Amino acid sequence: MSDDKKWVYSFHEGDGSDKRLLGGKGANLCEMTQMGLRVPPGFIITTEACLHTLDDPRQEFPEQLMDQVREQMARLEKETGRGFGQADNPLLVSVRSGSAISMPGMMDTILNLGLNSDTLQGLIEQTNNERFGYDSYRRFIQLFGKVAMGIADEHFDEAFEAVKRQVGANNDVELTGEDLRRITTVFFDVVQRQAGRPFPLDVYEQLEWSIRAVFKSWMGKRAVDYRRQFNVTPDIAHGTAVNICTMVFGNMGNDGATGVGFTRNPATGENVMYGEYLTNAQGEDVVAGIRTPKPVVQMAEEMPEIYRQLEDLRNRLESHYREVQDFEYTVENGVLYCLQTRNGKMNAAARVRTAVEMAAQGLLTREEALLRVDPEQLDQLLHPRLDPSFEATPLADGLPASPGAASGRVVFDADRAEMLARDGEKLILVREETKPDDIHGFFAAQGVLTSRGGKTSHAAVVARGMGKPCVAGAGGISVDVRSREARVGERVLHEGDVITIDGGTGKVYEGEIPTVPADFTSELRTLLDWADATARLCVLANADTPEDARRARELGARGIGLCRTERMFNAQDRLPLVLEMILAEDEDKRKQALDRLLPIQREDFKSMFQTMSPYPVTVRLLDPPIHEFLPTERELEEELQDLHQLRGNIRGMTTLMQSLRTTSPELIGTANLPAFMQEGGVEYVERVITHKRRMLSKVRELFEINPMLGHRGVRLGITFPEIYEMQIRAVLEAAAECMQQGTEVHAEIMVPQVCTAQELLRVKVYVDRISQTVQETFKLKVNFKFGTMIEVVRACMRARNLAEVAEFFSFGTNDLTQATFSFSREDAENKFLPFYNENGILQDNPFEVLDVKGVGQLMETTVKWGRESRPDLIVGICGEQGGHPASIRFLHAAGLDYVSCSALRVPIARLAAAQAKLRESEYDAG
Amino acid sequence: MSDDKKWVYSFHEGDGSDKRLLGGKGANLCEMTQMGLRVPPGFIITTEACLHTLDDPRQEFPEQLMDQVREQMARLEKETGRGFGQADNPLLVSVRSGSAISMPGMMDTILNLGLNSDTLQGLIEQTNNERFGYDSYRRFIQLFGKVAMGIADEHFDEAFEAVKRQVGANNDVELTGEDLRRITTVFFDVVQRQAGRPFPLDVYEQLEWSIRAVFKSWMGKRAVDYRRQFNVTPDIAHGTAVNICTMVFGNMGNDGATGVGFTRNPATGENVMYGEYLTNAQGEDVVAGIRTPKPVVQMAEEMPEIYRQLEDLRNRLESHYREVQDFEYTVENGVLYCLQTRNGKMNAAARVRTAVEMAAQGLLTREEALLRVDPEQLDQLLHPRLDPSFEATPLADGLPASPGAASGRVVFDADRAEMLARDGEKLILVREETKPDDIHGFFAAQGVLTSRGGKTSHAAVVARGMGKPCVAGAGGISVDVRSREARVGERVLHEGDVITIDGGTGKVYEGEIPTVPADFTSELRTLLDWADATARLCVLANADTPEDARRARELGARGIGLCRTERMFNAQDRLPLVLEMILAEDEDKRKQALDRLLPIQREDFKSMFQTMSPYPVTVRLLDPPIHEFLPTERELEEELQDLHQLRGNIRGMTTLMQSLRTTSPELIGTANLPAFMQEGGVEYVERVITHKRRMLSKVRELFEINPMLGHRGVRLGITFPEIYEMQIRAVLEAAAECMQQGTEVHAEIMVPQVCTAQELLRVKVYVDRISQTVQETFKLKVNFKFGTMIEVVRACMRARNLAEVAEFFSFGTNDLTQATFSFSREDAENKFLPFYNENGILQDNPFEVLDVKGVGQLMETTVKWGRESRPDLIVGICGEQGGHPASIRFLHAAGLDYVSCSALRVPIARLAAAQAKLRESEYDAG
Asked: Closest-CA residue in chain B for A801?
């Protein structure tokens, strides 16, 4: 570096947009100064000076640095008319660290630098407050001792407590000015003893040490850890600046004050100034909590002129920064100084409201407003949350499996839940884990709690689909369904006890905790309307039932991108039919069962079409392996054991009764065994045994080593054509009936697990045949499309051929991610994926955030090849990642037409889709 | 078609290379005629005429066809000086079908067409053999009646038998000319009765009907089925031609003869004429087996002039066709006619020998010789086979899981096998299924037979690896290990009974069946040396033990492309250490177990390096999930149940003994319980229970839903670094020790299941650290490379990044195929893949033949991207498909450097690699 390098900038000089050089705080001080706001004079030592020093082997300051600092100090002295180290009229300064982004672990503020035994007297005279003077002095000595000289707080604290004991003070407020003066003397001793040298009374020495301390704090452990964890790379923030600013005092009389303010209410977004202040006080008094600050509206009466200035400040800040500001100010001798400003942190509701209102005011364009809101933050507005003001200790911890909070009485099985719900009870279904035949329990309950399973367990997936809160895998809870109780350590929960679960955090509480309802405000509606008008990607929803579809539509879904027909199979009235179909010994028997399922599925689809008209509804044909509808081998074996025992018992009982009847009829009298235990009981049990044996042998027959990769999806649809034929017929008949009634229908039939065009062609043969029959019957042309899931890698490789048959592609990125990584999601998330994420082997969990570099690469190729053979091919995604903002950004860039996600992610996706469009020029997949 | 279209070609006109138009047989007749060989005059009706007729709605012949036929017949009359239908000097012809490839189900030959009651007399005069005349006539009537008039054979057969009964003949030979004459009369009645019209005596009517019959036979059921099954598409053969050829008679006196011949010995390949003949006989006499044909050498003495002509014919055929010919001839009145020729079918040994010798003779170039042998056929030469001349009825049927045949005594467990093998017994290990801890049984046995599991079961994979025969999944056999017997229906096999298995067909026989040994001839060596000189692809072998490596080297492998270290873990002396490692409760305990495995692995590797020097040995680090080394949950549960029962029994026994000792000591006397049942027995059992419980809880902890996609390969290597560190150290130390002893070593360390460069970088850190230590210790630079398996789709997508770290890629196409298709191999092969293949949804089983369109597409992209970042990247394949000729053709085209396959596939791969190079210009992946 050359000798004449500029290391120091006054607030008048610094470029407010260069946060990397000046730090965020410093840049804002320059900006405000140059806007003409009244900011106490000061200057900034650049981050370059910091890095230069840290790079130096002997950690020496760059040459000229201190010269430039002295020049600036001289300027401050001139501007303020005070002298640095001047006893009667001392110039005091604050020293703060400040990098491009704020970072915990870097040096705190040192106030009142420039104090020593001489200048203290000047301060006392100026503030006319001896106690304040000594209090400031002893704080300065401790803070400086700690950060600049490395003396642990405990040494100062011990000494401080000793004095308090001596003078009999219970708390700090009781200490007099004299007591505090004594403490400063004691603190000098502490410094001498601990540092082996006296406290520096030379003010430039103080300044130099402070600067050095700020520089060093950049490499402090917490700051380094923070940068690693949050991936703060040198292009984002590199080194810390040092802000040196003239002290102003709000405690020099009743024309002084200090306060903090927001330009709008950060809790509600309301367009009023918000904040608190104290008269005749310093900043730390507000924090210390000794005096109660007053709401800022009161200032209008108490200090009307200052209030007017404050309103003016607020307006100037907002019109300059065009974002809600969080600012600090001090009034010294009736003059308002702005000490700091930054973008205000707000909750989601306020963030949305201010963005929309600022756009309405003309402060922002609609595009800017859309970019102001983090889509993920909207999640807050879509679920009931626990009242944040309510404090409670959780009873147990689980995984946050489906967001939202709910309270209700504990219930341990689905049947009972259904019964109790009829009486209007609010319930939480508590299970070890859930299964398809618990589905009516999900409908009945407010929320679900399981002690086993992860974020992709049945409970989690179903609850998310229904938008109900779920805490999964709360391992600390042991559930005993038979005795209807659950144990958490020593605590026992019985059926009927009230608990509260928070699916956003995974916490479980005893009793009812108040919740804040979901908040789909009119401003949010406005913002999302703007989003829809901006976005190119269309947002659809994954929904399996008409209820899901209705909610999705309310949240703005423009169609159903994935309707999983097997979810429809899981309802109470269907599962027995599905079992019958699976257990059928031949095609005829299977067709009989399917014939009875047909009208049920048709009604489902009609209801979906009606709900979503005129938007499309995409029906995916049966996907999972059929053994998923059966109990496990072990369960059946246990049931059979019980049944055999039961049969033995009945036999024993009837034999006993028979022999008693002859030998001692008096013992029986008119008594009789319950009906099922009389003759015939054994036969009944044996029929059950036969049935269960059939199921068991079917379960064994269907066993697969890697069920993910087995006999499922289209493979099933081709080997047992009657299943798909039934579903296709149900879709097309439902569509025809709706159309006959004047409803606009866009049916889309989608085939899962396809790996070759031959498979699609086979299914298309069914579709062509059935549609012809249906169209002849109804005498109308059914409006439908035929397409395929893309979830098998080979389908990507064969995209050109598939697109010759399919009118649309829908990426199933859950399965596609599994196949691309050769990770089984459940196994990976339980075994090694957390390790991979923690160790930076993979940045994200690819099942939550789309893996752009691998899966995304494959998708881009697929889209390209697919459109080569069918230029108007519609391409979407229906995997879980389709609702994730970062993934949406990629999907927009990759040229998809739509994303489909769970209903409650729809608003998030709509906003993210708009942002993807607005930011497309900056996009770089890396 | 225009009227003057040419539908008929004489043998002088036809283009011998146009088999599609003239059929194979016809084209050859033209070729021979035009070569100047003496062929009876004749002509061909084209396949186009056939198709034209079949396409015609009324199935009429094309106009002009019969006119053109008549023209040709007139020419034949002129050439032969005979008349078609002329009583005293009749021209008789044969009529044969003939498409481009021979096909069962098409019409057989009709001989002697042109016979009727008039011309018969001429034939009798010419042959001077009344019996022959009538016999020919009755055969002609029946054959014509059947093929041209659709009369079932049974009607003729019944009539024939009736006459035989009448005349008291036991067999046909006893029938006199007069008897046969009566039969012709009876046959006329049959025709009249069955067809409702008389047998056509007009010779042109006969000819027309015959032509029509040949045309129709093209669409016969068997022919159609054949074309479907063997995928004979119209570009290969389309329609059948009709060959009409003058009859010549070898039975007109002692200067006549008939015979069949091969230009070389088709069983051995020896360069001598081979064949049989009969004097004064017709072709069908050779077939009928009434007279015993004489070997052709005898003709040299019996008919020296004809023999000279035959030698001449043989030489002219071979030098023209440059391929061994299978030909038919007849000598009429001392004149040799060649009736037919085609390429000779030969076994593998003859095929190889003739190819090499023809090249040595200068008949072929080496390149042509290489192309003459079907690589798959070499498999015959590499395994012992059952003696084909031995007839036996199989006892049971299973899957042909590992080729070769073996006989031996039945043994039901591995320990016993090991024991008996020490006594020199030849054994067949018979199990329900096998497991890693049966591995010593594989070494001890000649072959393996299992009653469960498929071609990828443990038994099959291990046996193939060792090159031992295996029949798997012979479901008809039920094995009872405890009682040491196996049941096949009623038959019971006991330990010690001799059986024979044929792993090439899946058949199991009782007793010992003679086998023909493997036949790695010097000609094969020569051919493969030429192959190596021609091929660009290098052929390596997959080998897990030094014995495997030795065999691979003998078979010409130029290195080891895949050494699966986990196979080394499976040996008896290692498995306990591996278990200790898995059950270790902390890293220290695990390291202790690994420290004991280290020297064992190091010795393995040293031995591999020494065996293969100077070729490379590629060591794959541990791949499978560690739970594969443990018993299943169910097995352990059952063992624990048994142990609990045992504990109860011991307790009961000791209590009983104690009480007897007091109450009735006389009952005991000096008797005592076996030691382990005395005090201490319970404790011992409880220790075992504790150990098994630990295993059980580990098994449960390690349980995975989709083990294929779980915690395995590099994922394991990163989360438990000490395992890979041990293996890397073992490889590098082994290499260093070998190098110190002057052995040239090329060690290659290969990481499995990689999906991101981060994983490779992590393992590379271990490699760098350990290699540094080893090099310092041994004071030499270890010669090794570091590379990765490519078996995860994401690795393909990230090939550019992986190639920055890896020096070589090795495609693991078994896993890659599973991932690309989302098929679990075992599940797919058991459930839907056969259906997919049968129904043409997929052409081949992609686990046997590389799926060029999907997996291949992915591989090509990977190679391209990988070499973009490392131009000298070495790329190979070590999946099972690497030994498959069709796959090798693709792999050559895709630019791979090597294929690695099981040892016994090495010769096949070497030849296939040469052929891939020779045919590269024709290659089209489609």
From this structure: B853
